[in-house]
Design brief:
Blueprint: H1 28-41, E1 44-49, E2 54-56, E3 72-76, E4 79-90, E5 96-108, E6 114-119, E7 132-137, E8 150-155
Antiparallel strand pairs: 1-2, 1-3, 4-5, 4-7, 5-6, 7-8
The structure holds zinc ion.
Zinc ion binds next to loops.
């Protein structure tokens, strides 16, 4: 079998058009357990690498530093600290949002990780880096096993 190497892109035959692609994104083994625990119990789980002394949230099935399998799961508080934040005025298509939303990276207590999530219950002007916040969960009947089962984080 021989392969032709085309150096001039104008020689490539092509058709312009749109192709519909459906896909399902999976959260992975650790992500599924993390999200199912939020949905079923309204609790946050982390996993620890004893060798590296790193606590992963979101959890993983292996340590990204030493490649060990991780199975030391434990519950962590629903509280954390704002590390950084921004207020968003437009959606992904550049259209104005009906109401601006404030997103933050929240370092979850007792972990080396955190979550990017919406901040609620406070005016953006009042937010500060270092502010203490806690997760507000959706009512159990509204939870779907997604990160949006956390409605937002609000100041403690
Ligand atoms: Zn490790």
């Amino acid at each position: 079998m021989s392969f032709e190497k085309i150096r001039d892109p104008r020689r490539i035959r092509h058709w312009k058009g749109d192709m519909e692609v459906d896909y399902i994104y999976t959260a992975g083994v650790a992500g599924e357990k993390f999200l199912a625990t939020i949905r079923d119990k309204g609790k946050l789980l982390a996993v620890r690498c004893g060798k590296c002394k790193i606590t992963y949230l979101p959890p993983r099935i292996y340590c990204e530093r030493c490649q060990s399998s991780l199975d030391d799961w434990f519950e962590v508080p629903k509280t954390g600290t704002i590390q950084t934040f921004t207020t968003v005025h437009m959606d992904n298509n550049g259209e104005p949002l009906p109401k601006p939303i404030t997103l933050a990276f929240i370092r979850i207590d007792n972990t080396d990780g955190g979550l990017v999530h919406e901040i609620g219950g406070v005016k953006p002007e009042a937010l500060r880096i270092g502010m203490r916040v806690e997760a507000v969960f959706q009512s159990k009947s509204k939870r779907t096993g997604a990160l949006t089962d956390i409605k937002h984080f609000k100041p403690v």
